[in-house]
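so my prof wants the structure for this chain in the tokens format not the other one, which i didnt know existed until like an hour ago. anyway here's the sequence
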Amino acid sequence: MRDIKFRGKRLVNGEWIYGVPVFDGDKAWIVKRFGDNFSADEVHPESVGEYTGLKDGTTDEEWYEGDIFAPDFSLRQAEVKIICYDTYQGRYKAVPLSLYLENAGNGGWTGFDIKYWNQRLGNVHDNPELLQPLGEEEQS
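here's what i got, hopefully its the right format
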């Protein structure tokens, strides 16, 4: 059976929490269940991402939408890739940075399969510096 879960960054301290998202207008919460009790923490709406069902082949770390992966030089790919959900193909894929930036987070029809041996570098929320195209320095 497939695990359906989400994560989001808490507004109060930036900590990642895991559970089920609830949206109301421009606000979002992650709801967690503890037996018969529930708790809800407000999160940054743009940080809410779904678990892909995939894990690192070595560390067993779960991978979520918005995670950033190292370039795969074995395939002659020099760009980092970002996990995005493709609404056209109905699946998660690794989108090269240039296409991610051009298409506001959805690579359109282009992307690569996500492999368990890919190396996770971070995510788009905690590591925005990884979203700089190669050769470009961050603007101050």
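also thought this was worth mentioning. Strands lie at 6-9, 16-24, 27-34, 37-43, 49-55, 62-64, 67-69, 81-86, 91-96, 120-123.
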